[in-house]
UniProtKB/TrEMBL annotation:
This is Biotin/lipoyl-binding protein. It comes from Vibrio agarivorans. It comes from the Bacteria.
């Protein structure tokens, strides 16, 4: 009986010694290094290139958005007024170009011809008058002064006839080729101005260029939206990645293209990630001195990793843990 008790005590003592030894062994074993990261995703800002007052916001936070879907509308009386002005200018330029191509109206041509015929008749009359006065001068009836006056009036009438004839020719020929080209170019310029204002007007109906989920709605109906101010932000949940800040002495575990496993507490499961990018320049976000006497330290590098299986359940801000 006594020997059995002794044996039991020996067994208990050995077990206790083994447990203490194992505890000391495990206590002095190196602990796994844990690196915590965060999920990020591509975000887009939906804004307008023209300022205006928000008319309607057609989405809410959490809505899933398709590419080309109408997001919000603007009310801008200034753009509407400018569009009317531009269209009026285009019509005026077109009318001038048409006039240049068509030339003068038949009534204008006839009026110019009548002015020329009138001037020609006056010139013929002054020529006859001069011949009579010259004959009288030769007979000594009139003074030389009278003859010179008649001759001057005849010459002036000839110049008036020539000017009237040139005006008549211009009316028949119409505008010069350079004038027609200039008028046509003014039409093109006016059309460009209309197209520009129409583009601004179209940008009061803002559609999404991306697919994703509405993350924020920053302005509401009735508020003023400055040019380029983000009214709605969209998160592309299908384009998510993990960001880790890794100290450089652990950087050997993360090479571009390597795969590692990370635990996501929010989803209570592990996911596989592939290293996609390693920051070229280190940062001092966290550091540890390697030589206190010389002041050397370890830098931190930012690593981006893409999930092997892109999962829409990944949300911005989720934590993930990697054990090395």
């Amino acid at each position: 009986m006594k020997s059995n008790q002794t044996l039991s005590l020996a067994v208990v003592g050995l077990a206790l010694a083994g447990w203490v030894g194992y505890s000391f062994y495990t206590a002095y074993q190196p602990q796994p290094m844990r690196i915590q990261g965060m999920i990020e995703a591509q975000q887009y800002s939906i804004s307008s290139k023209v300022p205006g007052r928000i008319d309607q916001v057609l989405v809410r936070k959490g809505d899933n958005i398709e590419k080309g879907q109408l997001i919000f509308t603007l009310h801008s009386p200034e753009i509407e007024a400018k569009l009317e002005q531009a269209k009026a200018g285009e019509k005026a330029a077109g009318a001038l170009a048409q006039e240049a191509e068509t030339g003068a109206r038949s009534q204008q041509i006839q009026a110019s011809k009548d002015q020329w015929l009138k001037a020609k008749a006056a010139a013929d009359l002054m020529e006859k008058t001069y011949q009579r006065v010259n004959n009288l001068y030769a007979d000594g009836v009139v003074a030389e002064q009278k003859r010179d006056e008649a001759r001057t009036q005849w010459q002036a009438a000839k110049y008036t006839e020539s000017a009237a004839f040139q005006m008549y020719q211009m009316a028949k020929e119409g505008a010069r080729e350079e004038t027609k080209v200039a008028a046509a170019e003014k039409v093109r310029m006016a059309a460009g101005q209309v197209a520009e204002v129409e583009a601004f007007a179209a940008d009061t109906q803002i559609e999404s260029w991306f697919e994703g989920e509405v993350a924020q709605v920053l302005l509401q109906s009735g508020e003023l939206a400055p040019q380029g101010f983000p009214v709605v932000t969209i998160t592309d949940t299908k384009d998510a990645w993990a960001v880790l800040n890794v100290r450089e002495d652990y950087l050997k575990h993360f090479k571009k293209g390597d795969t590692f496993e990370a635990y996501l507490p929010a989803l209570d499961r592990s996911e596989q990630f592939v290293v996609a990018h390693i920051a070229v320049m280190g940062d001092f976000a966290t550091w540890r001195s390697t030589d206190a006497s010389q002041g050397f330290d370890l830098r931190t590098f930012e690593i981006e990793a893409r999930p092997v299986n892109q999962d829409s359940e990944l949300r911005v801000g989720m934590s993930l843990v990697v054990e090395l």
